[in-house]
Amino acid sequence: MTQSEKMVQTDVLVIGLGPVGAALCNLLGRHGVQTVVCEQATEIFTKPRAIALDNEALRILQMLGVRDGEFTTTAIPRVHYHSPVYGCFARINTAGIIDGHPMLVTFYQPELEALLRDKLRQYPQVQTWLGHRLLDVEQQAEGVRVRLQDPQGQTVTVHCRYLVGADGANSQVRQQLGLEFEGETFEQDWLIVDAKHVPNPIDHCEFICDPRRPTPHMVAPGDRQRWEFMLHPGEDRERMQSPEAIRQLLAPWCRMEDIEIERTAVYRFHAREARAFSRGRCFLVGDAAHITPPFAGQGLVAGLRDVANLGWKLASVVQGRAPARLLDSYDQERRPHARKIIKLARFLGSLVMPSNRAKALLVHGLMKALRVLPQTRAFFEDLKIKPDNTFDQGLFVRERGHRRLLAGATFPQGWVRPAWTQQPTLSDEVLGQQWSLITFGDAPAASVSPEMLARWRAAGGQVWQWCQRAQGLHLAPASERVECLDENFLPRVVPLGWACIVRPDRCVFAEGPAAQVERLLQAALDHFQTDGVRA
Q1: Is residue 288 located within the same domain as residue 167?
Q2: Structural domain of residue 324, as residue ranges?
Q3: pLDDT mean over 368-383
């Protein structure tokens, strides 16, 4: 290192401060992890890109401390698929509430990015470096050495215990790690048009599945509408963004004189995933790890799932509360589900952009016919086609006969009333950022020895009794007791006398009868055992 070089040490270095990188840094900040995040750009990209979030994404943002109303969203009540021959041949009902959040909303990405960056200011342990470019990465026995170039052209060397690449589809981190980006690029270019003040705007999302020009169209906050037009082979990108070309494309909906064009851009969609989401002490999140075609609205959502899964694991390891092998479960849990979401998006894409008219008639006709059958209609219209965020293998204990909540699945969120405040709140606000033992009905002390409870608390675990409404007996101390106010838990999902252990990312680690809680706790504590070596 020359005298002009600067050297910095940190626990975690994050490359990339888009919405996924900013979300991860907020989560690491909430856990108190010393973090440096660097971003090559000096300003937020002010044009909208991602546009859709689902209930899972909104719940993860809640976990980061984002409150209702802190950024603007527009709920989408339904999604329609239109054919020029069959009319509306399919639809998805998205008007419901799941885990306390709307099933589907649109949003304005620059506003969310600004909010997430602003929230980083409350964490003194998180340093933000803008205008820094990644030079190279070297994995070492005790950490990772990363060289950056600062805005003045000086070299900055960062020694971190763990490195996370959140630097997008063209990830330099992924390339430095030598991880292949497997999948395909769609041949078609798509023209994105974002407009404001459109007369007679739609209040939902529609896919015009015309093989002559497939066109998704949706509402967005701020009096915005978005269209995505598939371009034909031979159509020039620049010419198709000209005012005259856009005038012709938008003619079925509005006149150019009546609207404000906020942005036009041409994209080519991809369906790709890295061969692995981690290598050694380095990890990939968001588009650096996987790219999802836009037809399912899951691109940013998938990146936020990465954040929720990885953030608490990094915190547990760097703070000495778990062994480094805990991090192996990140790739094990996230990559299979990301692949399922990509497959879903590709299937929906086959509905939106059939390759020819004959295929369109066949596929759209079949989808319309399947709506006649209640089971197949519900499978699509009630979004059962969307893969649950449930793991097949990873950091959980799943036993036969104990499948009320399902270990490896997401713990539901409902409305509860903590005994110490008597104010209704969403249950994630009670759980916070720790592991939680929850017993339903009976107090935890009824089935767990004081010694085991002490060990659990010493490892950072919480203990909760979730009571049925107006329960008057067998009560735990008020500081450990909440009352269930809806049927998201008791008795529709779990019976009285049941227990579960929930990870900080709201994944169910284990479940079973309350009489078996000690065994479940021991299984969880086994994962906390460290070898005394700083990871």
Answers
A1: yes
A2: 6-69+107-182+273-349
A3: 92
